[in-house]
Amino acid sequence: MDILIGFPEGEALAGRLASRLGLGLRMVALHRFPDGESLVRLEGAPERAVIVRSLDRPNDKLVELQFLAGALRERGCRELTLVAPYLAYMRQDIEFRPGEVVSQRIMGRWLGGLFDRIVTVEPHLHRTHDLTAVFPGTRSAALSAGPLLGRWAREQGADAGWVILGPDEESEHLVHGAAQAAGAQALVGLKVRRGDHDVSVGLPAGTDLTGRTVLFVDDIVSSGGTLIDAAKVARAHGATRFLAATAHAVFPMERMAAFQAAGIETVVSADGIDHPTNAIGLTGLIADCLATL
Predict the structure, then answer these.
(1) What is the pLDDT of residues 71-107, one digit of tens each?
(2) What is the pLDDT of residues 51-72, one digit of tens each?
(3) Exposure check for the chain: N or C terminus, fewer CB within 10 A?
(4) pLDDT tens for residues 117-161?
(5) Where exactly does CATH 3.40.50.2020 map onto the chain?
(6) pLDDT tens digit string along 36-47?
(7) What does the alpha-carbon distance between residue 61 and residue 33 come to, in Å, rounded to a whole number?
(8) Beta strands in the chain (DSSP E)
(9) Nearest Cα to 273, choosing from 15, 63, 53, 64?
């Protein structure tokens, strides 16, 4: 690799990764015209490059990524790596209703055609259990933040009396990774989603959380509805203290008041997406993967 390339909204993470990997850092300059078109500018013609960009709020970002990757190939770049801590359009993996576009499959062909290697953290996968099925022919890695969330919990005093709670079976690997690192009990609920902002969480019959501290973990907190409902359900089962940790935070900070009203004393996130709740670093996890992928 010759250089690591960052975008303005992710400069801090790009800088930390470049330093850890011993690579020179180049930042992309962006300009958006009044009609919404993007101008992308980056000097240089590296033979190998790592591009770092989380793909939350993805539409403009994906177009700019296409322009940058295409330009680097035109300049002779032989190996392009994408580090996208948050990877967009992964949840739509089947046609739920007639005529729906299966975005995961199309995004896989698109990004897989641009990059030689793709690294992400806790992609929002459902029925697809292996990222290589999304990017066939491309070296790829889906990293789990579970152990990092668990280590953070351990720093907060987690022990065997704590419960690490995930909303549904899709969070099971995250829950168990966090619980093992924290030395705590793992518990997986059942989530029922009726709409983007209408979600409920249930717990197995007979669950007793009397006097327990519960750390809620999930791959992403966006509206926060799942988190608030989980706190209500855990309280109904006897829990007395609530915290939350997520791999990806995209909620507006105004929602913190609602979280606190639900009794959640703190919400923290990993730093793949720049957010005021960032408290868990992904640099080492990503750098170690790049060294071996």
Answers:
(1) 999 999 999 999 999 999 998 888 889 999 999 999 9
(2) 999 999 999 999 999 999 999 9
(3) C
(4) 999 999 988 787 789 999 999 999 999 999 999 999 999 999 999
(5) 3-143, 146-279
(6) 999 999 999 999
(7) 15
(8) 3-6, 24-27, 29-32, 38-41, 48-52, 79-84, 117-121, 139-143, 162-166, 185-188, 190-195, 198-202, 213-221, 241-249, 264-270, 278-280
(9) 53
Residue 262 CB burial class (10 angstroms; 0-12, 13-18, ≥19): middle
**Residues 168, 189 contacting (CB under 8 angstroms):** yes
Catalytic residue list contains 191: yes
Going by DSSP bridges, is the β-strand pair 139-143/29-32 parallel, antiparallel, or unpaired?
unpaired
| Top-tier CATH class for 3-143 | alpha beta
Contacts of 173 (CB under 8 A, 6+ apart): 144, 146
By CB atoms closer than 10 A (0-12, 13-18, 19+), residue 160 is exposed
Catalytic residue among 26, 117, 176, 191: 191
For the domain covering 146-279, report its CATH number: 3.40.50.2020
Task: Give the residue among 31, 59, 62 at the shortest CA–CA distance from 70.
Answer: 62
